[in-house]
Sequence to fold (551 residues):
Amino acid sequence: MKIALAQLNYHIGNFEANTNKILSAINNARNAGADVMVFAELCIGGYPARDFLEFKEFIDLCEQSAQQIAAACTDIACVIGIPTPNKRKNKGGKDLHNSAYFIYDGKVQQIVNKALLPNYDVFDEYRYFEPETEFACVDYKGKRIALTICEDLWNTIENPLYITRPMDVLMEQKPDVMINIAASPFAYNHDEERIAILGDNAKRYGLPLFYVNQVGAQTEIIFDGGSLVFDKNGSLVDEMPYFEEAITYYTLNDDATVTPQQPATVMDERQSDIEQIHQGLLLGIRDYFYKSGFKQAILGLSGGIDSAVVCALAAEALGAENVMAVLLPSKYSTGHSIKDAEDLVKNLGCKSELVEIKSITDAFETALHPQFEGLPFNIAEENLQARSRAVVLMAMCNKFGYILLNTSNKSEAAVGYGTLYGDMCGGISVLGDVYKTQVYQLANYINRNTEIIPQNSIVKPPSAELRPDQKDSDSLPEYDMLDTILMQYVENRLSSEEIIALGYDEAVVRRVIKLVNTAEHKRYQTPPILRVSPKAFGMGRRMPIVGKYLS
Fold:
């Protein structure tokens, strides 16, 4: 049997584009002599469709697309992911199943429903779907296929939340091969985990495994592709590209071995975290603009490292001609900051404007003089500068149709080191899941072949330049220490006592965690954050604003 795997970039709710993309891939596979082509989980309507799934029209359009695809499959089979009505709803439960259609001879021949519904981090499948409890293999061209959906093949250990693993039941039917369709989001440590778990499953069940993931970004969630094929011993046969669309072909031989029809790729050395973050952010930026129908980005360029990295990423993702960098010096901005920003613009070839905000900020201060008279300069005046910049940037968005890129990093977002309706505004947050220390690594990676980001932007002490000689370290611990504490608290979810026990200064730990907890109201009002880590702010970390939690 010749099996084709389609790792494609889908667009939520864009049925015409998704269907045409699937039909084109089927046609290519037919011409290549494939017997069956496999697409990703919920590919018809895109994943995650969220509350679109609550609209009957959305479900009906999914079915209409599926029937159009089925009509094209007269001499080839295909597997597609689709939401389907729960026909046993009269017995209770949710309205829908997360399903896979096995299609051939021009119609849907078998429906497989997902059993193990993830309900952690960014996943919320129990909100929409009913878990399946009955499992059957698919028979096709003399092969018995154990077809499963994502999480159904993710678990290798007993889990009390999951009463039955679908593969344990399917093995009683003596399948010849496993096929798993997935929508597995990207995180910089996820590729190795994915390979290990799926390889363990192939070895556990003693069957070759074809795993298809999707690629592309859906607002903040990024899918990295990296579809995989394993032999019956759990050894990796082929690893499809990361962060790009691809179609690959394999022959499943009668002796259960698998032969790739193209040169197989198995990485001897994994990409570094920073390489993966770089690729993920480029894809996230590109798809956010393309799928939203926008082309041009704008950002405030300060001469500091964060905005420099965002500007460089945007220029690479969208083309330098589609990026507007606006220099917004205040009365506290230094000459070298302006020069660093100008040097970056020259290196990238992007568009730029310079708008002095001193007069704007002075106007605000003059208007507020009766209220502020006699009070010392403090954060109120500092934030007026940040908000003046935001007013300029948003005005240019309105006038010229730009989308504003937010340039705050994860360290700042964590401790609330940012101005609401100032530097925290934007359409999408590019670095909101990238710690400050990782931003430095990212800058050096961008400069790996030639200097794009001026070296001075990398080596100078970071500063918001909202008062004379201001430095971030005036308000925060040094980033090396801050980021390690944040990593333990946010990603690893350790308590303050556990972090202190690791050797960190007690006063610093308690201060940092208090800052994180009290800044929750700010994070609720930030733009969507491109997710590149195992635990990003946003939908993957849901905390109450008014809760009192002493960690």
About this structure: The radius of gyration is 26 Å. The chain has a mean pLDDT of 93.
